[in-house]
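Report of the visiting student (M.T.), summer placement. My assignment was to run the structure pipeline on a short list of targets and document each run. The first record concerns Single-stranded-DNA-specific exonuclease RecJ.
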Amino acid sequence: MDKIWQLVKPVPVLAEKLSQSLSVSLIIAQVLLNRGVKTLPEAEVFLKPTLKNLRNPFEIPNIVKAAERVLLAKEKGEKVLIYGDYDVDGVTGTTILVQTLRHLGIEVAYYIPDRYGEGYSLSIEAVKKIADSGVKLIVTVDCGIASVKEVDEANRLGLEVVVTDHHNIPQQLPNAYALVNPKLIPNEQPSKYLSGSGVAFKFAWALLKVAKLKDVEFLTSLLDLAALGTFSDVVPLNEENRVIAVGGLKLINERKRLGIKALAEASSLKDQITENQIYFGLAPRINAAGRIEHASKSVELFLSEDADEVQALAAELNKINTRRQGIGKDIREEVFERLKDQPAGAKVVVLEGEGWHPGVIGIVASRVVDQLGCPAVLIGINDGVGRGSARSIGGVNIYALLDSCRDLFLDFGGHEGAAGFEVAVDKIPELKKRLQEKAAELISDEDLKARLLIDAELEAKVITMSLAKELSVLGPYGEGNRVPIFVTKGMKIESMRAVGADGRHLKAKFAKEGNSFDSIGFGLGEKAAELNYNNMYDIAYRLETNLWNGFESVQLSLVDIKEANK
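After the run finished, the structure tokens were exported:
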């Protein structure tokens, strides 16, 4: 798919000012400006974030009321139950609050719903079970903001509910004792973009403050969990989330938490753990339990202080993840075979399949989005119920698209980039029809054009090891802080070949003005047959370093290639 290259307009005067003030290169300064970092104080926080840069948790509405209710449970001798979601964000947030309540001397249990038997968030049956167990207070994590009927049922059964969540605010709010959701903050503010684990971390902080405990060491020890959830839930990695991500990543690499240490070993991560190793190594294994079996295995991994137990749990999560990968491969092959029959120009892909595992279809939907450049909705039909996962492209709000069909769903939730739902099988044909109609109305051809945002044009002479290493100050990367992409024009090819399984990748050497650079283009193997040694090319790439046989060199990670002057 041809991409439209969009070079961010340089701001040389501001870049020069930031460059001099921060003692960084003009290129680093320009990338900071491209990320919306425009002032010296903002840049200093971005480059060297500390816990002091976090906002006061009391700025989140109702958080003091919620904290006081939890602490009242200690006075009354009540047992508190933490009710979390089954993804990484929910699992880590649940662990944060279980540990915090234990630290405060409060009797606490946790409950993670079964993804398939109970579905997302609170359920009526779960509420009844919890009431029968003698619990008087439920605290949700990463869910609950849309659980109107379920909270009403809890109230009827004599339970009180504190909701901590970060998802979009629905039209009708539940009648909970307190709603702790930063999206209820009336004005624009960094806390509004916290993950579910980030909200749990802020609530833990509020609990300590209300209890008048200045336990910085304990609070800091929770950052590894908050960071795992923050990275995994694809929230913007700037401002408060960047503080959590940077501090948490440092703690993750200290491997003080036995569960993280064991999981890293099971994932064969021996060296420094980066954000990419979280995205593709740790997070899938943590998620796998909730997708294939039960997420409580991941909670126990993080709570346990028994070395033998965490080793066994980490090994089990690794095996579950391998099973998930096999299931995903089968579904992916079926989906892409059926896509061959899809009409050209569709604004949204909607496919259903009997027996498709609902814990895996979201990952496959992401692959469809990557391949076709349009939103994708996949529905797995199991036991007479359709469970769907939707993924989107930048600029298209999949939550809004699905919300137009809310009346067809048994359950529904999500955000702009991803959403999930349950639907009766007999409603699927109508759902497909309405989604196609609404997509045609809401999504323009312009929205579906693939765009590549380029941070700066670099001359060959400035592509150096020094610059490649300096760029590391901008990490960790993720949503809202993507890896910088550069373009260099008029490059000649010195060598090229397809490499990897089925020749999927491109290995090439480009040269200009006496400078030559090794490059790798993942997924660009077909370009080897298209490129011509006699032509000149403009290349878009990420600037990296590559260590081989003890020798470190500059490497260009290719994103796209175009013939020069075209």
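The first strand starts at residue 4 and ends at 7. The two ends are 16 Å apart (CA to CA). I thank the supervising group for their guidance throughout the placement.
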